[in-house]
Amino acid sequence: xxxxxxxxxxxxxxxxxxxxxxxxxxxxxxxxxxxxxxxxxxxxxxxxxxxxxxxxxxxxxxxxxxxxxxxxxxxxxxxxxxxxxxxxxxxxxxxxxxxxxxxxxxxxxxxxxxxxxxxxxxxxxxxxxxxxxxxxxxxxxxxxxxxxxxxxxxxxxxxxxxxxxxxxxxxxxxxxxxxxxxxxxxxxxxxxxxxxxxxxx
Length: 201
Description:
Structural class: mainly beta
Number of strands: 17
Distance between the termini: 25 Å
Largest sheet: 8 strands, antiparallel
Radius of gyration: 15 Å
Oligomer: single chain
């Protein structure tokens, strides 16, 4: 996967990146995340800070699209994740993460933000890698995940008040950790519409 395929890509919160065959390897600096907290949630446990400083390597896309990529990392610290994201601005965006959760699991996690962020843990994943798909149909979006890159299951269906053009790409986070590399493989972005956004096909 050569760098020449990413001539139209730009940085929000630039970090280091390198390209090796079919891999994109991005560094997540320490204390980086995208999350818009609505305030204290409880007396105990870890609640995310409001941060919009994680590196996001993106391109601008007009209209419907389908993006796919396999993500992996080494799960060092809580909330470490290799993620994909669609973004209008710093308060309207959504991300899908392969994350080390605060329940000490590897899970597919989604966050949808319209001024404030929600946080939804999905299925736990055995191992350190998973495929993600992000599909858009108008202002409707869906995140899907796959264990083999063939069968995709829905993890989140949602709407966002976005314009025709959105920013789409790869995001690397380490909200409370010391940072580390995030690996993205077999990345594709196709300008097409799905027939059924819930199934992603």
